[in-house]
Write a structure and sequence with these properties.
381 residues; single chain; globular; Methylamine Dehydrogenase, Chain H; disordered N terminus; 5-stranded antiparallel sheet; 2% helix; mainly beta; disordered C terminus
Amino acid sequence: MRKLRYFVFLIAATFFLVPSAASAQAMKLLTRNSGWLLLYGRLYWTNDFGHDWRNITPPGSQIYGPYMISGVFFLNAWDGWALLVRRSSIATGTFDDALAETHDAGTTWSVTPLHVASPHPGSMPLAGGGTVFFRDRAHGWIDFGVVSSLAVMHGLLFSTGDGGATWHLVRGAPQIAGSVRFATLKDGWLAGGPTAGDLYSTHDGGRAWARVVLRAPSQQGARTWSSYSPPSFSNANHGVIVVSNPWSTALTLFATTDGGRSWEPVAALTHLPSIGTIPATTADSHLITAWLSHRRSIKLTVASQHNQKCAVEGPVSPEAHLGAVTWLSFRDTRIGWVLAGKLYATADGGRTWTDISPKAPRAPVHTATPQKGKRSKNSRG
């Protein structure tokens, strides 16, 4: 029996069952020049493609603050949310999360305690931390992890329709820990589970959910399983999703033109390196992945929907500190960021890379912390 090679992909979103400041690392290039970076517990913002960074860490979640950042989501270059977890609650197993909200790219934040609970007495308590997604300023979802074994990774999905003032359990949702996406207020997906092997969809706003199974043609009838990223949509009908095959270290891009009711494989990358994690993302309906080569360079591979492939290897400065590639974010097939120990940027499709990591962290500007039952507005200079 062939030995299983552990192959995991990461894509444009992040999940922390037991969050930690050291592991909470993610980023997103939102426009040609604007984006955010969560690195070692600090949240940064740039408006010039990483030439200059502004520390926009929400109040109370600085390195020595009572809270830490578990998840970040920006709807655009202004509106963003950060899920905060009280540090002391991690050790005690209690739930004490808060949601930070900004509508000016992190210049000011409003912080609100989250009043949510497990659905009934005796059920598994919320672990704190999770993933957050907003369709617009009013409608959002948080998938919280619950206290459970890593082999199960349960979760509970909550939604808001009033901008986060109140949250309600989505009772029909599968109880898995993962990432949630909604293309419209009715069409949504939940991807996660212990091996990211669970994918569910709803087309009625979350009242009913159905399991989705996607396999590339080469996988039909094979003794294998799939791992799923959350899908991304350019409009209500057109979207893509990346599916990995842990047995053959392959990635397949599926596309939909009917709002996710049906999917077709349109591109694939096979025989990828089986070392650590292979992150992937999509841009302009292309499948993009990257890893480090033995020549201290970043190898970028792109596959189009016509399955045309292009691989480019670009050198990194000999002085650069390189770690494993853990995150990718691209605006198109030429312009993007790669997180590999530090943050690297390319504007020529991976032929050259520049270290754009924030410099030495600045001292925190604000010290206010969330207050129970109150919304606090805090400014940053």
